[in-house]
Design goal:
single chain; 119 residues; mainly alpha; 4 helices; 0% strand
């Protein structure tokens, strides 16, 4: 996996955070535990109803990755190619078996065939 970093040019789109939404998300945690640093860390990781956290963002990325992988499912393509190859091999084997049966059934011995003879 590779990453491409570039300088901020202002074209990237970031949804603005509303201060009220952030404070609402922090307030219950802060009132329960009284630790602003821990509350910020939990908000950063888990988010809230209005503000997605890192876990939610990671989940969205995983889901998108799975959709893309299933869209370009190479396993099914390889399996289809394998089935087609098996069909070709079976067709060739039937053709060879048929030719051998014609040689044996026609009374012609393989030893009787000379180079250049039509079979």
């Amino acid at each position: 996996m590779s990453y491409r970093y570039s300088r901020w040019d202002g074209t990237q789109h970031l949804d603005p955070l509303d201060a009220d939404e952030v404070l609402d998300a922090l307030s219950e945690d802060l009132m329960s535990y009284g630790d602003l640093s821990a509350a910020l860390q939990r908000l950063y990781r888990w988010g809230s109803d209005q503000v997605p956290g890192l876990e939610q963002l990671l989940k969205q990325i995983r889901e998108q990755r799975e959709r893309e992988l299933s869209r370009y499912d190479l396993d099914s393509t390889v399996e289809k190619l394998r089935e087609q190859l098996d069909e070709v091999v079976q067709t060739e084997r039937r053709g060879i078996d048929r030719q051998l049966q014609e040689l044996v059934g026609g009374g012609v011995s393989v030893l009787d065939i000379k180079p250049g003879d039509e079979v």
